[in-house]
Write a structure and sequence with these properties.
single chain, 204 residues, mainly alpha
Length: 204
């Protein structure tokens, strides 16, 4: 299989990032705090890959992933503790979900429109090979990760769209290991949405 024929160090880094990414999404579906630690290491690998491949949007997004993971650790630890105190017998409904305020949805829509438009021109000026896909996926992923730190179930819907676009972008670059990883992400996003719906407990 071509995508497993490792010819240099970057092939190994891509493979390591893929494995870490799969572990991250498994823990995301389960909503475990450990997902954020896997995200830190996975995103750090993709920062290096983004620099190497001149995917500046991907590089910047993964720097954001590393930083926001610390916020995710704090918020999910807090929310899990609150769930344990308020609903100690919620063994089958241990997914913490917070309702999304209409203000968050409106601001997110404005951020998407402004962010994707601005990033397209910036990335094109930086000779990004896929400025349109990179700009849209970067903006969607930026918003989706923020929604994840707030435990909004709607974040899965954004990931479904972003994953399809990421698969396309990496495949066009001939980067088959990360493209395969996002196929796994897409399947996990679909499963994760319905898993959260079945096992969620809404907290305020």
């Amino acid at each position: 299989m071509e995508f497993l024929a490792f010819s240099d160090i970057w092939d190994w880094i891509e493979f390591a990032a893929m494995v870490l990414g799969i572990l991250y999404v498994v823990k995301e579906v389960q909503q475990r705090v450990s997902m954020w630690y896997f995200n830190i290491f996975c995103a750090s690998a993709y920062v290096a890959i983004g620099i190497h491949q001149h995917l500046w949007g991907s590089m910047t997004l993964n720097i954001y992933y590393v930083l926001i993971s610390f916020l995710g650790i704090y918020r999910l630890t807090r929310d899990k503790a609150k769930l344990s105190e308020e609903t100690p017998d919620a063994a089958n409904h241990d997914i913490v979900v917070r309702r999304m305020p209409s203000r968050t949805l409106l601001v997110s829509a404005l951020v998407f429109l402004a962010g994707a438009s601005a990033l397209f021109f910036v990335l094109r000026a930086l000779d990004d090979p896929q400025p349109n896909l990179d700009a849209v996926t970067m903006t969607l992923s930026f918003i989706g990760t923020y929604w994840l730190t707030n435990s909004h179930i709607e974040q899965w819907l954004l990931w479904m769209v972003a994953d399809v676009l990421q698969i396309t972008m990496f495949a066009l670059q001939g980067m088959y290991a990360p493209a395969f990883m996002f196929v796994v992400y897409l399947a996990a996003s679909i499963y994760g949405y319905f898993h959260w719906r079945r096992h969620m407990t809404v907290i305020e």
